[in-house]
Predict the structure.
Amino acid sequence: MSGDSFSLNLPLSRLGSDSCEATTLYQELRKPLLRYLAGLGLSADEAQDIVQESFLSLHKHLAERASLRADPKTRPSKTGLDGGPDSQQNIRSWLFRVAHNRARNHQQSYSQRMREPLDRAFDAASNAATPEEAALERERFRRMDKAVRTLAVQERECLMLRAEGLRYREIGEVLGIPTSTVADVVDRAIKKLAEKCNV
Amino acid sequence: MCEYSKRLIAWMDGELAENEAAEVEQHVRACPACGKCVSACEKICREFAAYYAAYTQTRPVARRQKIFGWAPIAASVAIVAAMLLIAFMTRSAQRVPIIEQAAAIPSTVERSPIAAAVPASPPAAEDHYPPYRQQKAIRVGQARRTTKPESTNSQWAMIEPAIQIAIPAEAMFPPGAVPEGVSYIANVSLGPDGLVQGIRLQP
């Protein structure tokens, strides 16, 4: 799981503002973020832009927090950077939430992507050794694709964030829903997929 | 349905508290239905992970590429629209100069050396004409618009003469070629570009 490194599970309030940490974060989280945004249906260009914007937002937050610390007379802002409600939110879920919110501006891409046939994509991604295996794999992908398209948007988002290794609490932070709701949604989505795929 | 079935996936994901997880684990070992459900869920999770990896690995169609896909059609439409607009504007621009030119010529003629000797409006009495008619009489008619101004270009070219100019015979023919006392009226036809297309002389 890519997000289990020590720095990613730190609360945002404990993250330093030095460039070394930022570089590590970028290396660790860039690909999962890009994958998630691609899963939402964004193009590679759009996903790249959003990831960069998200890291830029993080940098601004850290710089703002550093300036607040330097000036003790200034009261902490309401953004939860230091002691606020979001201060215990970890870096990974914070970045996913920012990226997720920005991706909502590209809903058109999402619906566009969901209309596209994915056969060619699955052919390219197939690792099957023999033609028979490839045909079986393609059939599995097609069946899963059909089943995934029947899921609600929130169910799909929960499953994708779960596949990226986020915990239920983090998924809840990204999507703005309670952890118990995430558990219900994930349970429901997986059972729906199992039913549709006759597993 | 088993009371534990709602918590199986949370248990698989390690989301339950320690004591609750131990309880569910114990139940799954004892309950064949829940054991089967866990196997099915594990399988579907693996399949979804493979699907998700394939889905996100492939490069989605870029929106910018989509826009470029429409660009040739949009450009063609824009070019055709621009050409139509230019044609329309040119046609409008051609109409105006004829009217304006027709209206402007009288004042120009009046300022010319020939016109300086001529009254701006035709004299009321026939007696005033003879000297001018024989030598340098110019009669400037008023510009007239055709009764159907919003017609085609050809109709604009074929309208009745907007200006009548009487030119002294001496100015057009060699001395002695035309008997004295004869004057001509030139009917000048203007083309859509404002240039003279033809002149017809009437004695």
Remarks:
- Chain B has two domains: 5-57, 63-202.
- Residues 137 and 149 of chain B are 31 Å apart (CA to CA).
- The first strand of chain B starts at residue 164 and ends at 167.
